[in-house]
Amino acid sequence: MRTSLLKTTAGLSLLLLTAFAAPGPRKKTKLYMIGDSTMANKPQQVFPETGWGMPLATYFDTAAVVVDNRAQNGRSTRTFLAENRWQPIVQALQEGDYVFIQFGHNDEADNYPDRYTPPEDYRKNLSKFVSETRGKKAYPVLLTPITRRRFDQAGRIQETHVAYSKVTAEVAAQYKVPLIDLDKMSRELVQQYGVDKSLLLYLELAPGDHPNYPYGHHDNTHFTELGARKMAQLAVGQITAQKLPILSEHLAKPTAKNAVPPATNGKDAQPTTP
Questions:
Q1: CA–CA separation, 148 vs 146, rounded Å?
Q2: For an engineered disulfide with 102, which of 31, 54, 76, 143 has Cβ 3.0 to 4.6 Å away?
């Protein structure tokens, strides 16, 4: 009888200790980024070229949100799938994670048959990313491709991704997926900067500007540190404006480095110098 009572008392004590024990570490939300060179991480030897996914990580409370940037230079939706870059992400996805999906630059490059993806195949590939992300109870977000720096003679920014941005928006509407229209917002931002000042955003370097490019470099597609940060700010503004679950709740406190202007689109964003 005494032995039985001792066992019962010990069992109750264990239950109480378990009930009041400190909870385990909170699961961090992973934000996977899939896309092309405008988003990708860059090695030191191509600095100051910077993908906008690189500064994005600084906008989140890293105790709650971890950015895992899987974007790769030169990839279209087709080659990202063909090279088996997507499947490991699907396998790793946990409930409540995010996938930011931004392609288009290389899909539309019909002069590069190794990466070109016709619009209807692009649509199918985006649909696959969305469906398989949701299949893991994670959140897909579609982003239109960021504008290239291209002005007409009157100084008006030109739309450079008409067909592929349209398909992206259509897939977002079809599947009721959040859409961040970086194409439109980045055009508005670049227009605010104008023909000359917008050179600060893109990898336009004169000879001697940087040791990585001793002969200069002319690139109206990829970004400097400033340009990448400005593009990341556009995305963060939409995370807040659209109240994306989890992400909007765990933005880092503003600092001089990661401060986001109150505008939620490029039209209202004011140009600054580095």
A1: 7
A2: 143
Question: Taking a C-beta distance cutoff of 8 angstroms, is the pair 105, 71 a contact?
Answer: no
Question: For 118-130, what is each residue's pLDDT tens digit?
Answer: 999 999 999 999 9
Position 119: which residue type? P
| CA gap 106, 219 in Å, rounded | 15
Read off the amino acid at residue 28. K
Report the C-alpha gap between 76 and 20 in whole angstroms.
51
E strand or H helix at 150: none
Q: How far is the C-alpha of 192 from the C-alpha of 271, rounded, in Å?
A: 6
Q: Which of 51, 40, 35, 50 is nearest to 99 (CA)?
A: 35
Question: What residue ranges define each of the domains in the chain, with the CATH number in brackets?
Answer: 28-241 (3.40.50.1110)
Structure confidence by residue, pLDDT tens digits, 247-271: 999 998 755 555 544 433 333 333 3
Q: Is the peptide bond before 178 cis (omega within 30 degrees of 0)?
A: no
